[in-house]
Design goal:
Blueprint (H helix, E strand, L loop, with lengths): L8 H8 L5 E4 L9 H8 L7 E8 L3 E8 L2 E3 L1 H8 L4 E3 L5 H5 L17 E4 L8 E7 L2 E5 L10 E4 L2 E3 L3
Parallel strand pairs: 3-6, 6-9
Antiparallel strand pairs: 1-8, 2-3, 2-5, 4-10, 7-8
């Protein structure tokens, strides 16, 4: 029997702003928290499933970067568009304190503090993309343009091909 999805803070915030989203649950594999696994589990191509990364900039401090699962964040590009000389990924152990979420469940919506969100421009090529709903095992499908009603989103080119 499939359990009923619990509404997360991210989903509640979208609903509060009148933004529709579809929830897709999947079985969590603690040994494989990769976004590629999530894409396969919810039946969407990797280019439509976006992972949310926590980044620290030398000038601006913490911000979020959303990139498709079939690409990697380009640190030089994200530094340039975010107004930083240097950026680095936040240590995994600091993610819960910074966002209120755990690794594998970070959503750009409903973080503890308001952070700017830099989303790869490829999101705008899809009518709906998948993002974490704020917990492992649940993704929310939402129109990428609608996110700007809830979070400070900048769409830009911030990825490189995997392995480059």
């Amino acid at each position: 029997m499939k359990r009923k999805s619990a509404k997360t803070n991210a989903v509640r915030l979208l609903e509060k702003h009148g933004i529709e989203c579809e929830l897709r649950e999947y079985a969590v594999d603690e040994h494989d928290l990769s976004a590629a696994y999530v894409a396969q589990a919810i039946g969407l191509p990797p280019a439509r499933v976006f992972k949310t990364l926590v980044v620290m900039g030398s000038s601006t401090g913490v911000f979020l970067a959303c990139v498709p699962t079939d690409a990697e964040l380009d640190l030089k590009k994200i530094a340039r568009v975010s107004g930083n000389k240097k950026v680095e990924m936040a240590p995994v152990k600091e993610i819960p304190a910074l966002t209120g979420y755990i690794r594998g469940g970070v959503s750009p919506v409903g973080t503890k503090k308001h952070y700017p969100v830099f989303m790869d421009e490829s999101a705008l090529t899809w009518p709906v993309i998948s993002l974490s709903a704020g917990v492992r095992g649940c993704q929310m499908l939402v129109n990428p343009a609608d996110l700007a009603k809830v979070v400070d989103v900048t769409h830009c080119s911030i990825t490189k091909e995997k392995g480059v």
